[in-house]
Amino acid sequence: MSEERKNARHKASMEKQKAKVDANIEAASEERGVAVLVTGNGKGKSSSAFGMVMRALGYGQKVGVVQFIKGQQLSGEEIYLREHCPQVEFHQMGTGFTWDTQDREADMAAARRTWALARPMLENPAFDLVVLDELTYMLAYGYLDEDEVTGVIRERPREQSVVVTGRGGGAALQAVMDTVSEVKDVKHAFRAGVMARRGVDF
Ligand code: ATP
Ligand code: MG
Predict the structure, then answer these.
(1) Which candidate, 12, 16, 150, 188, has a CA 20 to 30 Å from the CA of 139?
(2) How far is Cα 82 from Cα 80, in angstroms, rounded to an integer?
(3) CA of 202 to the centre of ligand 1 (A)
(4) Could you write out the DSSP letters of every residue in 60-99?
């Protein structure tokens, strides 16, 4: 194909795409907070959530973050938020995870204590964005009541956005979310024997 023809085809395809996007923009008339679930087996769920935290902070919005798993290992996002963003309300479950503790009762109690910190944020219109990192596991293990959690997400303040991360996340959770993205695991460095990397993986 000649360059000229390639250019013409590209232009036509771009015009078509633009028309589609413009129509979607035209059709979107509702302004409110959104509920986003980032799930799947690939890497990038929590880092996506923290990307949204950065966006929200850029606009001076009020952000809350609750992490439902990573109790004992420190992460770059935690260090940064604690040191540089005192305006962000940050909580962690603060206990190791089940294959460390092997104590279901204790895990369940920790999950409920942590949910008791998350819930008031989801009821407080002052928060623009609330991140519930790794929440899906709490539902999958039955540590938290799915009806209660989905109900609170559904009934949250109209302007508030919420981001949930974690593998799985059942139909009831998906039903209450506006946007659901699945990160697919195509390849992961870990399986080639590369260690988790500071600044990339934690
Ligand atoms: P990240 O925090 O990097 O965005 P994630 O939230 O999508 O990852 P988690 O299941 O929470 O993934 O796991 C967190 C850690 O596990 C990270 O160090 C990440 O690199 C690693 N990880 C994520 N997906 C995989 C995978 N498919 N195989 C091996 N390790 C993974
Ligand atoms: Mg994660």
Answers:
(1) 188
(2) 6
(3) 9
(4) T--EEEEESS--SS--HHHHHHHHH-TTSEEEE--S--HH
Nearest listed ligand to the Cα of residue 43: 1
pLDDT tens digits in sequence order for the chain, 202 residues long: 899 999 999 999 999 998 988 888 888 888 999 999 999 999 999 999 999 999 999 999 999 999 998 566 789 999 999 999 999 999 999 765 555 556 788 889 999 999 999 999 999 999 999 999 999 999 999 999 999 999 999 999 999 999 999 999 899 999 999 999 999 999 999 999 999 999 999 9
Task: Spell out which residues have Cβ within 5 A of ligand 2, the ion.
Answer: 45-46
For ligand 1, say whether the CB of 190 is within 6 Å of any of its atoms: yes
| Ligand 1 centroid – CA 72 distance (Å) | 16
Say which ligand is closest to the CA of 45.
1
Do residues 44 and 189 lie in contact, with contact meaning Cβ atoms separated by under 8 Å?
no
Task: Answer whether 80 contacts ligand 1 (Cβ < 6 A).
Answer: no
Ligand 1 pocket check for 146: Cβ under 6 Å: no
Among the listed residues 72, 42, 40, 66, the one whose alpha carbon sits nearest the alpha carbon of residue 53: 66
Give burial (CB, 10 Å; 0-12/13-18/19+) of 119: middle
CATH number of 33-192: 3.40.50.300
